[in-house]
Design a protein that fits this description.
By secondary structure, this protein is of the alpha/beta class. The protein has a domain of about 200 residues: FAD/NAD(P)-binding domain, CATH 3.50.50. Helices cover about 35% and strands about 25% of the residues. The strands form four sheets. The chain has a seven-stranded mixed beta sheet with strand order 5-4-13-14-15-12-16, with helices on both faces. Strands 7-2-1-11-18-17 form a six-stranded mixed beta sheet, with helices on both faces. Helix 1 runs parallel beside helix 10, helix 2 crosses helix 10 and helix 10 packs antiparallel against helix 11. This is FAD-dependent oxidoreductase.
Length: about 400
């Protein structure tokens, strides 16, 4: 196998899945991750369509389903807390019965356990410089060490350092959709039991949910960025921006905003997409959000990560480790799939965050009518059909693995 020594930047879903499949195909992957360990916690994510096939081929599907969030119902409320509409959890979350919803941290742990004995992990470290040579990539790490790898793959997210070093500044590739998202753990003061409650205000949506096996809850804020002062980078500035954006909103929003100050897992970012003409530059390639982020509004980030990792490893193996052929084949296979899923983001976020009071009133009226109509599940199925078309918009190849090189742990 040519170019067997591969550095992966990022131990998220994309990076760890890639490490798994590269090892299956006889490569020697190393994963560098700036966090001190695999990240725990996080919000709930969906595994849909082709990603279910990847999980099944990894022998993980039953474990994922056993750890599902088991959210049973979804409710929409108005500013007074009045329940406007309700439906079962799968319909509310846009899932068919084959889809699996799991907490991101649980999925991380399952993936890491499949690889920790056979893959080298460098936690608490990160790439600071890349120098490509005819024979490899010289990598400088924040720890002060320098190493040479045959190939480097950036799986380090929307704000990818690898992409910036190999392709150029973030501003060239990251396209802000005009909305912000914030998520954090909060006390379950509503007593939610595997339920999700959504509040809709003008340009401001907020939801809270509880999942199986968790005594607490999660709060998610989605809002129109118009009128938000500046672009805070530090957590305290982001908390202030969030509180300002939701000032005066009804229902339980003020109480959830107060809870965010004590949250250790506070997260805040733009809802953005990544668009690039190419995903590789000689010996450096990009994967997942670093290459084709579809935004959280698409609901497909995790599935794109799983499928992209499977395809990239498989195409590199099929090319015998030749990075030019392998990276080119990876793009040919993945581009239509990534594009189909990226189309979901802008349309979904406009449905999730309505801009005016009149639109809020109309949305509430329509949801109330829908809630009383027979066959509402069939109507909702038509609404979520585009998600499932996109989730299945790729035919996965079966790539031959190398059993002789595969360690017993895999």
């Amino acid at each position: 196998m040519k170019n067997a020594n591969v550095l992966i930047s990022g131990a998220g879903v994309a990076g760890v899945t890639l490490a798994y499949w590269l090892r299956r195909h006889g490569f020697t992957p190393t994963v560098v991750e700036r966090a001190p360990a695999v990240r725990a916690g996080g919000y709930k994510v969906d595994v849909r369509g082709a990603a279910l096939t990847v999980a099944e081929r990894m022998g993980l599907l039953e474990e994922i389903r056993a750890m599902r969030t088991d959210v049973r119902s979804g409710v929409v409320v108005d500013a007074t807390g009045r329940r406007v509409a309700s439906m079962d959890g799968d319909t509310f979350g846009g899932r068919t019965h084959g889809d699996a919803e799991i907490l991101r941290g649980d999925l991380h742990r399952l993936l890491y356990e499949r690889t920790r004995e056979s893959v080298t992990y460098l936690f608490g470290d990160s790439i600071t410089a890349l120098r490509q040579t005819p024979d490899g990539v010289e990598v400088d790490l924040a720890s002060g060490h320098s190493r040479t790898f045959d190939l480097v793959v950036g799986a380090d997210g929307l704000h990818s350092v690898t992409r910036a070093l190999a392709f150029g500044p973030q501003e060239r590739f990251v396209h802000d959709l005009g909305y912000r998202i914030s998520i954090c753990g909060v006390p379950n003061h509503l007593g939610l039991d595997r339920e999700e409650v959504t509040y809709i205000g003008p340009g401001r949506t907020m939801l809270a949910y509880s999942t199986a096996g968790d005594d607490g809850a999660k709060a998610m804020f989605l809002f129109d960025a118009a009128g938000v002062d500046g672009e805070p980078r530090d957590p305290e500035g982001q908390r202030r921006a969030l509180a300002s954006a939701y000032a005066g909103e009804g229902w339980e929003v003020p109480r959830f905003l107060e809870s965010m100050h004590a949250a250790a897992d506070f997260y805040y970012d733009s809802i953005s997409q990544v668009h690039m003409d190419r995903w590789s530059s000689d010996r450096v390639a990009l994967l997942g959000d670093a290459a084709y982020c579809a935004s959280p509004a698409s609901g497909q980030g995790t599935s794109l990560a799983l499928v992209g990792a499977y395809v990239l490893a498989g195409e590199l193996a099929a090319a015998g480790g030749d990075h030019r052929d392998g990276f080119a084949a990876y793009e040919r296979e993945m581009r239509p799939f990534a594009a189909a899923n990226q189309k979901l983001g802008p349309a979904n976020v406009k449905r999730m965050v309505v801009r005016t009071r009149r639109q809020v009133r109309m949305s509430m009226l329509m949801l109330g009518l829908l809630d009383r109509l027979p066959g509402k599940e069939r109507m909702m199925a038509k609404v979520i059909a585009p998600i499932h078309r996109a989730a299945n918009a790729i035919t996965l190849k079966t790539y031959a693995s190398r059993p002789a090189d595969r360690p017993a742990a895999l």
